[in-house]
Amino acid sequence: MPLAYAEYGSYSPDGKEIAVVIRTERLRNWKRYRGGNVADIHIYNFANKTSTNISAADDAPYDFPMWHGNSIYFLSDRGPEQHTNIWKYDVATKALTQITNYKDADVHFPSQGPEDIVYEAGGKLYILPYATSQPKAVQVSLVTDKALLKPRLESAERNIQSLALSPDGNRVLLQARGNIFSVPAENGFVKDMTHTSGSAERYPAWSPDGRSIAYWSDKSGEYELYIMQTDVEGSERKLTSYGAGFRYNPYWSPDSKKIAFIDKAMKIQVVDVASGQTIPIDKGLRMMHGAVNNFTIRWSPDSRYLTYNRDLDNYQHAVFIFDYNNKKLHQVTSGFYSAFSPVFDP
Length: 346
Known about the structure:
Blueprint lengths: L7 E4 L5 E5 L19 E5 L4 E4 L9 E6 L2 E6 L8 E6 L5 E3 L8 E6 L3 E6 L2 E6 L6 E2 L22 E6 L5 E6 L2 E6 L6 E2 L8 E6 L5 E6 L6 E6 L7 E2 L12 E2 L5 E5 L4 E6 L5 E6 L5 H5 L4 E2 L5 E7 L5 E7 L4 E4 L15
Antiparallel strand pairs: 1-2, 2-3, 3-4, 5-6, 6-7, 7-8, 9-10, 10-11, 11-12, 13-14, 14-15, 15-16, 17-18, 18-19, 19-20, 21-22, 22-23, 23-24, 25-26, 26-27, 27-28
């Protein structure tokens, strides 16, 4: 093979050259990338075994080459819109011309034909004739009986994501398919606690006195903390109004009066159940989803203190104790070595 590496390519009309991408950026999870792995297009001459990088003077990506006549069409976000559009490179003059001008969508996976290019942008298909360079929408009609859109019963047993054991051990709260279910340990009924097919409930937690459950729900449009009495229908109450953001496991205090948690911004906070007041405690430094999802908080038996570990500036971990009554935070390990999973002695 004349080329050791190649991903997308298009032959010249005479077949003597090929415009080729050595490494593509398609299917990557970034946009507007400018760096060492940027996609670029090379024109390779098979007879001379020479290669010319047509994007060498540009730090923007050049991808999906499509050679037609004396022009090479390609994808790039080099324009002022900073969205991926179709551009044209004149092989003779080396001039660049922007062909499409999408400002709120990216062009994806174009495919060239004899007279035009077909591509997707904003969830629609378009035809781009070489002669006019004016995109035309492709009307797509799907004939279906919409069977998959009809209401149906769906088993939730294979979609359990989290659980919480009741204080007396007789029942378990399960989160599955966006609902929270109360399930007996052995014999009894299964109860859907939330009945919300249009919203998602997550991270149920049973209060230590067994009277209430707490969970996060996006019923209001964003994830907020809700409280519900276990034996009273319609007792659901929205406790917070934080707005945008994602929050993780709630941890009840032993007196069932406070709930601690961490959010996606690594902020550690405590909510007073009676008043809904939120007390900020601390903040992690470099915690991704896995770390905050597994973040653990432990309360002291008298509900005055809570303890946890988090990362430090030196990339080690330390244990912290927060005095809720005095609203004071104390680091109780040196940070010289990592310390994990603190637990209060009853």
